[in-house]
Amino acid sequence: MLADARASGSLLSLLQEFAMKFSAACIFAICAAGIALSPFTRAQDDKPKMTIKEAMKLHKDKINDKFIKGTATDEEKKKLQEAYEAMGKNKPPKGDEKDWKAKTDALVKAIKDNDKDAYAKAVNCMACHSAHKPK
Ligand code: HEC
């Protein structure tokens, strides 16, 4: 009786040990898979969510004016930020890439900081179009 209990007890601990090792192995496998896959997921993250023309739709819809007036909703601000982040990930159709990055980064930063003055300067249509918009 006593021996039985001890035997089943050790069987249980054996099982527990096995389960722990097994789950540790699972976690390890999941991590390894995650690490192995991360170059792909990262590449996906780096892909722009929209084209520059799609981002410009927000300007056509005058969401930029709303931001400057302070009437843009949180959702519109989020859209603007996403659009400028996507623009930064796109190659400019024309002009210097460093300058393009600086312009799009300034836009993202102004939105993140909720800084209307910085945004009004950064969203200068003509300054950016003359440098980067093809005819
Ligand atoms: C940081 C740079 C930048 C700023 C700021 C900017 N644009 Fe643009 N915009 C571009 C580029 C680049 C294109 C050309 C995209 C293409 O041809 O792929 C463009 C194209 C456009 C187009 C044509 C889109 C189409 O479908 O062909 C419109 C309209 C437009 N912009 C409006 C505006 C307005 C209005 C503002 C100011 C409130 C503005 N943009 C500010 C970079 C900018």
Topology summary:
Layout: H1 2-46, H2 52-60, H3 63-69, H4 74-89, H5 97-112, H6 116-122, H7 125-132
Helix pairs in contact: 2-4, 3-6, 4-5, 5-6
Bound molecules: heme C (HEC).
Characterization of this structure:
The protein is mostly helical and 135 residues long. The chain folds into two domains: 1-47; 52-132. It has seven helices and no strands. The structure holds heme C. Heme C binds next to helix 2, helix 5 and helix 7.
Distinct compounds present = heme C
Report the sheet-strand fraction. Answer: under 5%
Listing every helix as H and every strand as E from the N terminus to the C terminus, the arrangement reads HHHHHHH
Shape: elongated
Q: Main beta sheet, described?
A: none
Helix content: over 70%
The quaternary structure here is: single chain
Q: Which regions contain 5 or more consecutive residues with pLDDT less than 50?
A: none
Structural class: mainly alpha
Give the integer mean of the pLDDT values: 85
Separate helix tally: 7
Q: What is the first-to-last residue Cα distance? A: 92 Å
**Rg from alpha-carbon coordinates:** 27 Å
Number of strands: 0
